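Problem 12. The chain below contains 784 residues. Write out its predicted structure in token notation.
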Amino acid sequence: MKNFLLFIATLVSNSIFACGFYPFGEDIRYSFLNPANFNYYSYSEFNYSSNTFYPNADGVYPKGAIDENEKLWIKYCNNKVSAEAVRIVLYDFKEEDINEKSPNEMLQYFYKTKNIEAINYLKFAKTCEFFNGTYEDPWERKESVSLPKRRELIDKAIFISNKTKNKELRLRYTFLAIRLAYYNNDFYQIRSLFDTVFKSQKKDILYYWSLYFRTFVEKDKALVNFYAAQVFVNAPDKRFMISQVFDAKISLDAVLKYAKNNEERANVYFLAGIKKSDQALFCLEQVYKYNPKFEGVSFLLLREINKIEDWVFTPYYSLFNPSVSKFSYWGEDSDKNNSIHDILNRVENDRAYAGKVLQFVNNVNLKKINDPILWKIGKAYLSFVTRNNQSCLNGITAVEKNISKKDALYDQIQIIKALALTANQESGKAEILEEVKPILIKNQKNEKFLFAIGRELEYKKNTTDAAFLYSKFNHANTEYVGYYDSGTAVWKTLKNRSNSYRDFYSDYFDYIDVIYSPEQVQEIVSQIEDKNNSLDSFSKWKQSYLKTQIPRLYDLIGTKYIRQNNLKLAAKYFAKLNIDKLANYSDCLWEKPNCKESDMFDANPFFVLKYTPEFIKQEKLFKLNKRSITEHLISYLKKASDPKEENKDYYYFLAANAYYNMAQNGNSWMMRRYYWHSYTDDAPFEDEKEFYESNLAQKNYLLALKNAKTDQFKALCLRMLGRCEKNKLEYQHPNNYDNRIENYDDFLLNKNRYYQDLKSNYADDYEILMSSCSSFEEYFKARR
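Solution.
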């Protein structure tokens, strides 16, 4: 099994990272009801999670807890020895350590009471330990499973058991024989020993340990499920392995016919509910019906709420599918199953299911169940899930009086309270409420909580405070909430067009870069720069990071106006960077030779084209930054549009070059983007088509062509128009896995109307201009 788990983990890891990282599983799951805050540690391996194939490395008992076997030994010793003494003998001692000289309290008790039978049992058990396991055979030969020494020990255990006077020791010897028989592949012996010795005995931990092995050799699948359910409930250390045996496809009616009482029926429904990754309300109702005092009722409720959280809040806040989903994110139907519209529709269905669970909780008699606090919190939380925020807040108010503020559970319900308070506001009037502020400060390292509050504000039109909260994410200091929740926030946008490896965000700047309008970013800056606003401690915390980012935000506003082709406003905000003492403008300010190869703007976008020899003489050098480029573009366009200008074709051509260079294939793409990549992005930038199609460049090359005086310059304009058209065709007809096009280059050439015009009207020039870019200089000089 250990090798199998390793194989599964490796397989999953390879499938996730083979094509690059993409958030999945616990990275994306939203959970605000942490199972660790409730007293169900022995069930922790079955907390709802996408990590379903890992046993608990720390065991199933909390530190210092006394397990059932230890309790049996303490009782056997008439409560005269400590649990620690028992634990040391059972788990730390070797056979040679068991002697009269040992100071161990348990051994001293046996020697003083002359209980040699117990001493001999412990020594024999230590002898068996080496053989309680399977040993790897690289040739996978079956005969290696059965060992003569193990057979000898089985026979000896049975022999001693038959002559031992003490009943409990007899059962312990029989259990050792059963366990050895399992590893010796002797299934007949297991059945025989269990059915003749244990079947009629009192059901203590020895019984359930023995039943554990008996389950593996049973052929009746319904009976296997019944045995598994009883072991699962009563033998915590066997839960993970025995749960793998339970077959959810077997009819529960067939399993339940073996139950002799309500407790056993409840156990069956309990394990059936644990095994369900989908809705398990029916199982929860049945466990409550048959054994309401059973702690499994409460744990199953907790698990169901954790499921609902994933189904509702993971999509609602992050727009990812739930971490455990029946829908594949990749594949033929991925777009159909994973569109934002479909994801949010499923959220509403799951909120409706949450309402059914809430109705059940409302009908439960709290005097009958073992953990009323959990049920009260669950009731309040489910009210929030179903959007009954006021009912949630009323429930939280009632329950928080009964929980110490020092208890982790108190912080837990404060998080739920903050979410409900924020969600309970009117759209367009939402703000960070005074009662929510200290909760945010206390949980500032929990990115998912901060993001959820921010998302609630964003959904209610308060994008400014949302951005402030998103800016507080510092992944290096993110709180590790636990194995089942990383605390780190990743999310998508409602404007996502399709699924790709790049359709999510984890940083505030990347997000507002794509989603916020320039006016929304201006509002963020205005709030920070408002000198009339006296800041309280929370506001100082809220603004602390973005206050250091003002120059970057000015740059972003200007960049957003460039995307809108609003050049005057772009220049206005870029100008602020030159006068702001805080500005650290990293763009290359001067042309060569001062520019380093790695600097931005290492070539003038008006006079130099990427992958093309320089062919336009620049009369006067000027600074190369976003402001200067924008102001020169405004100037050239103004001159080009002047009816009296004699060189309209020249200025339109320079403007067209700049627009071309601002696109993905240009040398000044950073005028529109903060990152460059060779592939077509799926991010919903408002100028996405322009960035890939070079439409503004094409528009201005057409105006240059219209005002051209010579055939050679007209031919050059057509050549550049053809470049723009090629970019457009590649964007509209990508040659990818979904759209394979044979003879792709010929396809692009034949559909390119400007190249066809160049070929038809300037045949001689076509061959020269298409074969070499070095001819551009000659053709540009021939403008007059």
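Discussion. The CA atoms of residues 689 and 695 lie 8 Å apart. Students who got a different answer should revisit the alignment rule from Section 12.3.
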